TrEMBL record:
Residues 289-350 form the Tyrosine specific protein phosphatases domain. InterPro entries: Prot-tyrosine_phosphatase-like, Protein-Tyr_Phosphatase, PTP_cat, Tyr_Pase_AS, Tyr_Pase_cat, Tyr_Pase_dom. SUPFAM superfamilies: (Phosphotyrosine protein) phosphatases II (SSF52799). CDD domains: PTP_fungal. Residues 255-278 are annotated as: Disordered. The lineage of its organism: Eukaryota, Fungi, Dikarya, Ascomycota, Pezizomycotina. Belongs to the protein-tyrosine phosphatase family. Non-receptor class subfamily. GO terms for molecular function: protein tyrosine phosphatase activity. Coiled coil: none annotated. Residues 71-359 form the Tyrosine-protein phosphatase domain. Pfam families: Y_phosphatase. SMART domains: PTPc, PTPc_motif. This is Uncharacterized protein.
Length: 397
């Protein structure tokens, strides 16, 4: 089936809509099916070669044991043993947390499950470790604490500045073993960000511990906590929430700078903020902490969009070679090699294509307007969405 062609900018020398964004829904569906088969094969191989002391583990092996099972929110979602975050703990304490380091190009992330009531200690222990993430820490929460009457994530942070700091409880350890990691999380400010439709909290993490020689040590870290609650599990943001998600991605990149301004409005006059600048100025080496409930579907989709939008804004999706390359399918495959089930549902997979197509069309429209002597705006996302739908007429189901 020949993919329908979407009109692109006619300005000489300007980039055209890439072939991977002109694919039919049927073609995208087939690629998702291929990715699912690859994942099944990895999981099967990991099951056949478990991580133990008997034989070398597979790249796809998972850990076993009661301590691991008890810390997982879902029995079928866990990190690969060869690619997991290891907590810094004393002898006799498990170093396990359901979290995976993710790297795409130079950009780094940590995808993790939403904390349980018994894993708040593990979550903040991970954030406190300078070897894992530096201050300021950016945490993006893509789930409500409860959806459809079920807990999706424990309430692991204070809701208002009037609340007392959240005390981090000691880990449950074996008799005779003491967990010396202690701390508290205070809320310093909270505001509603209209563009990203998010609750933006500034938290202060204070922890106490001991050095190798037994000396007490106190540490503080600033945390930017972004809560986006308009994304139901297994589904995709709809309507204006789609544009809000793009704003959230940009805001998280903006805050993940060594010394970012307090607000985006301070970056440029009149409140303007360059998306390209935010995507490129972010501290790529300092991972953003991304979680939903399981840490795979919405989290994987967010990470894929952040990475692909950074490529688009820096021109790296223009004039791809070979021309039939599909960086979206490649990115999802790379994500799933680092954490199972990333971009979990087919609707989420199609959503990545839809968003990239919309943003690319807006970019082309801005370039055409600028070349024609008009005002080079970024384009209205809703107009771009209508263009994208019009260009995809006749797609297979």
């Amino acid at each position: 089936m020949t993919a329908p062609t979407t009109p692109a900018a006619s300005v000489a020398g300007s980039p055209q809509l890439p072939a991977f964004l002109q694919q039919s829904k049927a073609e995208i569906h087939n690629k998702f099916v291929d990715l699912e088969w690859q994942q099944r094969n990895r999981l099967l191989q990991g099951t056949q070669q478990p991580a133990n002391d008997v034989a070398p583990p597979s790249q796809w092996s998972r850990l076993t044991g009661e301590a691991v099972t008890a810390r997982n929110r879902y029995m079928n979602v866990e990190p690969y043993a060869q690619n997991r975050i290891k907590l810094k703990v004393a002898d006799g304490i498990s170093d396990y947390i359901n979290a995976s380091p993710i790297q795409l190009g130079k950009r780094r992330y940590i995808a993790t499950q939403g904390p349980k009531d018994t894993s708040v200690n593990h979550f903040y222990r991970m954030l406190a470790d300078e070897g894992i993430v530096a201050s300021p820490v950016v945490v993006v929460m893509l789930t409500q604490t409860h959806e459809a009457g079920r807990e999706k994530c424990f309430q692991y942070y204070p809701l208002s500045v009037e609340e007392s700091p959240l005390v981090i409880q000691p880990d449950e350890v074996e008799e005779g073993v003491e967990d010396v990691f202690k701390g508290e999380v205070g809320l310093e400010s909270m505001e509603e960000d209209a563009k990203s439709r998010s609750e933006v909290r500034r938290l202060r993490l204070r922890t106490e511990g001991t050095t190798a020689d037994g000396q007490a040590v106190t540490q503080e870290k600033e945390i930017h906590h972004l809560l986006f609650s308009a994304w139901p599990d297994f589904l995709i943001p709809e309507g204006d929430d789609r544009q809000a998600l793009i704003e959230l991605i940009q805001l998280s990149a903006h805050l993940n700078q060594p010394s970012p301004p307090t607000t985006k409005s301070q970056t440029q006059p009149n409140g303007a903020s360059s998306a390209a600048n935010d995507y490129t100025a972010t501290d790529q080496a300092n991972p953003r902490i991304i979680h939903c409930s399981a840490g795979v579907g919405r989290s994987g989709t967010f990470i894929a969009l952040d990475y692909l939008l950074s490529l688009m804004h820096t021109g790296q999706l223009d004039n791809l070679q070979p021309a039939d390359r599909d960086p979206i399918a490649e990115t999802v495959d790379l994500l799933r090699q680092q954490r199972m089930m990333m971009v979990q549902g087919e609707a989420q997979f199609h959503f990545v294509y839809d968003v990239l197509r919309e943003r690319y069309l807006a970019r082309l429209a801005a370039a055409e307007a600028g070349a024609g002597g008009g005002v080079a705006a970024h384009g209205d996302a809703r107009d771009a969405r209508r263009d994208a739908v019009g260009g995809a007429a006749g797609d297979g189901a």
